Amino acid sequence: MIADDWTERFQGTKVLPRAVRDRLLKVAQVRSYQKGYPVFGPNNVPDSLLFLYDGTIRVSQSSDNGRDIVLYRVDAGESCVLTTACMLAEEAYNAEGVAETDITVVTLPKLAFDSLVADEPAFRDFVFAAYSRRLIDLLRVVDDVAFGRIDVRLAERLLNLVGGDKEISATHQQIASELGTAREVISRVLNDFQKRGLIAQSRGRIAVLDKPALRALAESD
After folding, report:
1. What is the mean pLDDT of residues 123-149?
2. In contact, 33 and 99? CB cutoff 8 Å
3. How far, in whole angstroms, is CA 133 from its chain's centroid?
4. Which residues, 6 or more positions from 196, have their beta carbon under 8 angstroms from its beta carbon?
5. Which of 50, 21, 37 lies closest to 109 in space, CA to CA?
6. For 61-111, how does the pLDDT look when each residue is reduced to its tens digit (9 = 90+)?
7. What angle (nearest 5°) sits at the alpha carbon of residue 56, between those of residues 50 and 61?
8. Which of 216, 214, 194, 218 is nearest to 206 (CA)?
9. Is-contact 79 49, C-beta < 8 A?
């Protein structure tokens, strides 16, 4: 259940002046959605700023040939930069946001957002600081896709996915979408990893056999 004062949940909002936080609590709305819910999609013009109180939202974009790339994830305690950008420009989304888990979101209607940005310098600074941080993250994604070695990026992604476990439940296509490349490319590199004894594969599952070697590869670029 969401706390009475949800502004405590977010790094940016909990340091705002009390009067600003009270305004946010008065005008914002709290909503919950199940895993798989399409939070936003292409051609939708956002009418609210989105704060994610709990869960994870996966933001991805599809090319004309059907290839997907994961742009970023919105985690609990964060706002969605794409929503902010589209609201400021009054333009439609060109990407899709889907709930990866059950989620609870706090939405701030555009009229209230515009009023707070105009009236409260502290809130305005918070919005643009969060926007700048996420924009830098997006530029890193572009840099990785354009210039990063796919074996290095894949090793890093496998380590992130496996965490403290030994196996990953993911298809080659899902991993390809995460890294913005073709499934065939991922299959080729995974087969190479398997030959080198780094992983073992079965349908829809990847067992990580040599984490130190994968970590050394991930840090080699």
Report:
1. 76
2. yes
3. 13
4. 213
5. 50
6. 887 666 778 888 888 888 888 888 888 888 888 889 999 999 999 999 999
7. 80
8. 194
9. yes
pLDDT of 72 reads 84
CA distances from 156 to 42, 137, 206, 218 (A): 30, 16, 14, 5
Task: Specify the length of the chain in residues.
Answer: 221
Amino acid at site 172 = H
Q: How many C-beta atoms surround the C-beta of residue 158 within 10 A?
A: 22
Q: What is the pTM of this model?
A: 0.68
**Average pLDDT in the chain:** 87
d(Cα 45, Cα 139) in Å, to the nearest integer? 23
Give me 29's structure tokens: 């709305």
Measured distance CA(86)–CA(95) in Å, rounded:
11
